[in-house]
């Protein structure tokens, strides 16, 4: 992976490791190109905004020298960048922000297309918390959890942004049952109720974490 956002890289590395997908990240494109020349990699996740060298130039060099599939991961909104990247030979383009689950699925799809090995453990690995938006249900390890409407809205948001920090503002902005700062105090109460439903020890949560000064994070 070539990604200079170390926080994002850490989240993706941690998430993908659950599916036995091992990831090394390089912030410096020159170091990355040196490593790729010496080692075998199954796939490259490439950010376009990198220090010292534009991601499109990196993409061009990779396509010219190596037969390695490339997923572009970029916050650039210019459609021209996407077109150029795909014309250069990138295999996929994933605009930021995105759900790590989508990256995982795209990695597996591309590796299958390139006949790369994916362990059965990675294929069979299931997520602990699963949101079914159509049924309006959330399960933990396959077991249905009954939530109130407010609990469900918060937990749904956390499932969609699993592994990322969600601020109180994000909750107020995304959950229509909370429509003002006056409701902010009740968020902590509801999260405490959620923890009693999903945690083995609500006083020492392992999954629904408080990130001091920033918000909350759902991890597995």
From TrEMBL:
Binding region for DNA: 120-220
Gene Ontology BP terms: regulation of DNA-templated transcription
Residue list for modification 4-aspartylphosphate: 47
GO terms, molecular function: phosphorelay response regulator activity; transcription cis-regulatory region binding
InterPro entries: CheY-like_superfamily, OmpR/PhoB-type_DNA-bd, Sig_transdc_resp-reg_C-effctor, Sig_transdc_resp-reg_receiver, WalR-like, WH-like_DNA-bd_sf
Domain OmpR/PhoB-type: 120-220
Pfam family, one: Response_reg
This protein's GO CC annotations: cytosol; protein-DNA complex
Keywords per UniProt: DNA-binding, Phosphoprotein, Transcription, Transcription regulation, Two-component regulatory system
Residue ranges constituting the Response regulatory domain according to the UniProt record: 1-111
Protein name stated in the entry: Response regulator transcription factor
